[in-house]
Structure formats: C-alpha cells, structure tokens
Specification:
D-Maltodextrin-Binding Protein, domain 2, 40% helix, 12 strands, two-stranded parallel sheet
Length: 307
C-alpha cells in the first residue's frame, strides 16, 4: 500500500477539521498484515489553530508497547510543542513497523528487536540508529498458577512447565519484538508449542494481556505495558522475571530518504536528536515513578550515559 493512499484520509480530515478551529484526535485504521496480525491505529494528535501545518508532520512506526504503556502520550506532546511538528503514530508489532519503514511508509521507526534492527540498517533501509531505553520482559499468569512457576527466575524452565502442564498460554503471534522474544524462549527450551493450550492471538500487547486475564492464561509481556494494565484492573501476576534473556532494549531509526520523496529525513533526524537528548531521557526516566515507585523504561541513549 502506498504511503499517500493510506495517509490521505488523515490529511483530508485533518485539514477540514482544522478549518473549523476544533481540536481533533483522528484514528485511522491501517489494514492488517497478510500474516493476520492486528490492524494498526494511526493517531493524528490534537491540534489547535496555528499549530503544525499538514506538511510539518512526522510518521512514527512503533510498537504497541510504547503506546499501550502510555509513554508516547507523555513525551510526544513535548516534542510537538517545542518544534511545531505533529507526530502521527502507527502502533503495530515490530515486524510490521519495520516493514512500514522498508516500504517508505514511515519516517522514523521505534522498536525493540535488536537483531531485526541490525538487519534493517545493514539492508540500507535505515540511515541512522540510536539506543533509546530498555526495560525487561516478564511472564505473567493467573494467581492460581496452574503450572507452578511463581517466583521463577529461569524463563526457559518456566515455559517448559507451562508446556508440560498444558496450561493456557496466549502468544502475541504478530511478529512483534515480544513475539520474537517468546519464540527464542521456546527455542531455548527445545519446545515447539502446539495444542489447544497454546493460543496465537495476532494482537498487540494490551489486547493479549486482556485475553490472558479473561482466560486465566499465561503470557509474555514487557513490564511497562503490564504495569500500566494493573491500573486498569488486570488480575494477572508476575510469575517469572529476572532472567538476563528477558532484557528488552529499544532503538530508534531514521528511514532511508531514498525510499521515496515523501520521507522527511530532516524531521526524522530532528526527532531522533530530541528523543536521545538528556532532557527527553530525563522525562523517560520519570515515567511511571509516581504510580509504581520506579520508571517503566530506563533511559539508555549515548547522551544519557555520558551526561
């Protein structure tokens, strides 16, 4: 799908509503990928008269975890206010986010699957990559813990017991960074999960946590999205954490402007400079502290490490 086709609806409605000087938040659905993964939601941020013109827009392809955790709702308005550039967020799995970059349908990609990020850069699909932040993955499940894994610090052992007891497990199944991590855990345990107990959802992290909660099932989650869901009443508990294999770093990349003439290379680099700057990293370091006593993401840019 050409970038101009799927994005034109955003622009047309944005221009019409801006003419009326009304704030808007316009959701637009991008068709799901051929693998059946969840459709993406493109959110055009609210604007008042005098804010960014239609051409001063940046398309950010990112993971559902950055959206579902609430991080983007906190930091993106800071960028928009400082630079007068609106950010349209396409929140999908890492695989789809990277494909949007390859197809020239995004200006910037923010994901969490380092091997895939490296391949993206090596193929010339991106022209710049920077470390942004990290947190960790956790295995969560019902308080009844039918697999008996509560308190485990060995992820491979935990999922082995889930498989052996055929306890319900909901997989992202969407080629996301979380799904890639899950597959690496099954591989480490030498298990090919199958059967009625293994549910491939093809959905984002928030939706999968909701499914797991409703079905009293286990799932793999990034810590930030899980903690955000605890504020919404999830009854899932953390049953396995702390294994080094569960480390979860995030990187941001500027899409190669040679993909097409619509890619905003200068804005992409401006956004990356801002994202990895010490003030923005400080904002990331404070996200979640008030609610949970510690940040949901740990800043990790070069500027932050060298401050």
């Amino acid at each position: 799908m050409k970038r101009t086709l799927w994005f034109s609806l955003v622009v047309v409605f944005m221009m019409a509503l801006l003419a009326a000087c009304q704030p808007i938040a316009l959701p637009v659905t991008v068709p799901s990928a051929e693998d059946g993964s969840a459709a993406a939601e493109v959110t055009a941020p609210a604007q008042e008269e005098g804010n960014a013109a239609a051409e001063d827009r940046l398309i950010l392809a990112t993971t559902t975890s950055t959206r579902d955790s609430g991080l983007l709702d906190v930091i993106l308005p800071l960028y928009e206010a400082e630079f007068g550039v609106a950010v349209d967020v396409v929140a999908v799995g890492t695989g789809q986010a990277l494909q949007l970059g390859r197809d020239g349908n995004a200006d910037v990609v923010l994901v969490h699957a380092r091997s895939q990020e490296d391949a993206f850069m090596e193929a010339g699909d991106g022209v710049r990559r920077e470390d942004v932040m990290y947190n960790d993955f956790i295995i969560v499940g019902p308080a009844s813990d039918p697999a008996g894994i509560a308190g485990s610090s060995a992820a491979a052992v935990a999922i082995t017991q889930i498989a052996e007891t055929e306890s319900p497990f909901v997989s992202r199944g969407d080629d996301s960074g979380t799904h890639s991590k899950e597959k690496s855990l099954w591989a480490a345990a030498a298990i090919e999960p199958s059967g009625d107990w293994y549910i491939s959802a093809g959905q984002g992290m928030g939706a999968v946590l909701t499914m797991a909660n409703e079905q009293e099932a286990y799932t793999l989650s990034d810590r930030a999205t899980y903690l955000a869901r605890t504020l919404e009443g999830t009854e899932l508990i953390i049953v396995a954490e702390g294994d080094p294999i569960l480390f979860n770093p995030y990187g941001v990349m500027a899409v190669n402007p040679e993909k097409n003439s619509e890619i905003k290379g200068e804005l992409a680099n401006q956004f990356i400079d801002w994202l990895v700057s010490v003030p923005t990293q400080e904002a990331i370091s404070q996200f979640g502290v008030e609610e949970f006593g510690s940040p949901l993401f740990v800043p990790d840019s070069e500027a932050w490490r060298n401050r």
